[in-house]
Sequence to fold (134 residues):
Amino acid sequence: MASITNIRTGLATRLATISGLRTAATMPDLPNPPIAIVIPDNVRFDDTFHRGMDTLTFRIFLVVGRADERMAQNSLDGYCATTGSTSIKAAIEGDKTLGGNAFDCRVTDMRSYGSVLISETNYLSCEFVVIVYA
Fold:
C-alpha cells in the first residue's frame, strides 16, 4: 500500500488542477476559501490476499466564501458537478492512480451541503467521499 501521506498529497495535487481553488493535504488552522482540504477517513486492510491491496476512504472538505450567498451557492454547485473545469469529481478522476500512488480511485458521494461556522465566520461547504484502492 502507498502511504496515506502520498495518497493525500496525490489527491491535493489533482484538486490543484482546478483554477482558483486552494488545496490542503493537511488540515489548516484557518482555511482561506475557496479551499479543498483532504482528510483521511478510513482504511480497510487486506482486501486482497497477501497484502495485495487496501481500500482507503478520504473526505474532501470544500469551503467557499459566503459574502454573497447566491454567488457562493453557484460556486459550490460548480464544484459539485460531475463534469466541467471546476468539478471536484472530474479533477480527481483525471488521474485515477494519483500520480502512481494508487491502483484506482473514484469520487462516490457529495454530502453535507450547507453552512459551516469556522472561527466565527459563516462559510458554505460540502464534503466529497473518495474511495482509493492502493
